[in-house]
Amino acid sequence: MNAIIVPGVTDLNKGDQALVWESWRLAKDTGLYDEILILDAGDTDEERKLLCKQSEDRGFKLLENILKHPRRGRHKSGEHIKESKFELIKQIRNAGVDFYNTWFLIRICKDLDKVKKHFDARTYRTVEEFHKAKTIFVKGGGFIHAYGEKTAPYLMWYFLFYVRLAKAMGKEVVFFTKLIWTFRWLDS
């Protein structure tokens, strides 16, 4: 029996990294799962290296993400991302494509043959792992957030994609709170 931790790990944000790692530990401590996978982050090889290398080096098994970040390929080290009209237009276009693709994937996700026929190998492998998983854990913390930008509704939709996918497959979804250290502290 397997479990998956979503959304993707981001090693550049130490607080987020700690929440993902602690979520993994809590799932592992139950003794219920043979394998616990953590969803990776990043849409390019450079991003994956920046966002996931420490977790991978630490021995965590990562699972490839399906849905690309709204700012695809924009996690460049040392570069601040600015909102421009062009970036907004790109994100709106990406959102339209993502809405359609994920709507279709969620409709057919229970049938692995259809997923294999209509989607790439990476998507198929990830959906296959969701099929094997008993539980999808959502890491603690305020990951459903936005800062008032025009793309905020899309960001929130994006953050909940894996929860929707899990629910479409009939998987158990467990949300950890932001206070997992408080609970751990009280246990000791």
Tell me about this structure.
It is a single chain. Strand 2 (35-39), helix 2 (45-57) and strand 3 form a beta-alpha-beta unit. The chain has helices spanning 14-29, 45-57, 85-108, 112-118, 121-132, 152-159, 161-168, 180-187; strands at residues 2-6, 35-39, 61-63, 133-138, 172-175. The chain has a 5-stranded parallel beta sheet with strand order 3-2-1-4-5, with helices on both faces. Residues 180-188 have low confidence and may be disordered. The protein has 8 helices and 5 strands. The longest helix is centred in the middle third of the chain and has 24 residues, at 85-108. It is globular. The chain is α/β, with parallel strands linked by helices and 188 residues long.
Extract low-pLDDT stretches. Answer: 180-188
Helix content: 40-55%
In whole angstroms, the N-to-C terminal distance is 28 Å
* Biggest sheet details: 5 strands, parallel
Element-by-element helix/strand order: EHEHEHHHEHHEH
**Coarse shape:** globular
Rg over CA atoms: 17 Å
